[in-house]
């Protein structure tokens, strides 16, 4: 059995091409998933992990084709159940590096319960949630992240549902790493993926992704050049939270628990809200900010290191049981108690 070290040089020297499978990529032309796939494949060699120790697990949806396109081990599971399968795999083979790829529908609707538990347990998996605010594979129904009033094939008079904030969900569930990036910013996406992959514990990354067929430009606030300058907010740990054009820089200050947008030139730097990636309460506030009233935070919202993982606790319990009672015998257990044979 090989051991995952995550140490550069411990694995063969890979290139992006080594992680490209022989399968034809079957997403719609122009889909944001292509950019995400390329970024993930490009990131893999930097992890320093042998390909045979990497597993991609998905559910159902456009994003869930992902394991077919990665030249690693993979498992295409049923709708919403990827986190449960990933948990089982980490318990059976805790040395493996496991990624879960899901979408806003797969992960937050039918799979919401499973996503909740993999996060609260702090299972050591890296979860990539592609958020296009629509059901793409089933042809354009509204999803849990679709905006209120969204007109779709399943909501012809407009959605009556309030949308879920994936980052706020992950933070409330107890993920120890939460970040947000966007499919059209390749460098930022690659850096975010690397940070998430190196985190020990439940890491969650929301990737704002375009569905150019059923929900084109849903994230135009971060695609349009002028709008992006006004609203994109890059989080840097320990630095003031600022955004906007260089000649009219804006920032955030806290009035109690409520953020307020101010002109950077009109307040002392000490008054500005400084980002602390270890503060879950602050991350919860950041995860729910949105344009036009507020900027849109991108980057690492939360990074809590040193937390014990679920599989570490379970393995410790297993080893203690073996130490106290000896190695178990499954056949003996099955035949114990009131058993009978059918002739």
List the main descriptive attributes of the protein structure presented here.
11 strands, 12 helices, single chain, alpha/beta, Rossmann fold, globular, 8-stranded mixed sheet, 3-stranded antiparallel sheet, 343 residues
Supply Rg: 22 Å
Broad shape: globular
Summarize the amount of helix as a percent range.
25-40%
Runs in which pLDDT lies below 50 for 5 or more consecutive residues are none
CATH second-level architecture of the domain at 16-218: 3-Layer(aba) Sandwich
What does this structure look like?
The model has no long low-confidence stretch (mean pLDDT 95). The chain has a domain at 16-218: Thiamin diphosphate (ThDP)-binding fold, Pyr/PP domains (Rossmann fold). It has helices at residues 33-43, 66-69, 82-92, 104-110, 112-120, 166-173, 186-198, 220-223, 225-231, 280-287, 310-325, 330-334; strands at 54-58, 73-76, 97-103, 125-131, 177-182, 203-208, 232-234, 242-243, 250-255, 258-263, 296-303. It starts with 32 loop residues before the first helix and ends in a 9-residue tail after the last helix. An eight-stranded mixed sheet has the order 2-1-3-4-6-5-11-7, sandwiched between helices. It has a three-stranded antiparallel sheet with strand order 8-9-10. With 343 residues, the chain is of the alpha/beta class. The radius of gyration is 22 Å and the shape is globular. It contains twelve helices and eleven strands. Helices cover 30% and strands 17% of the residues. Strand 8 (242-243) and strand 9 (250-255) form a beta hairpin.
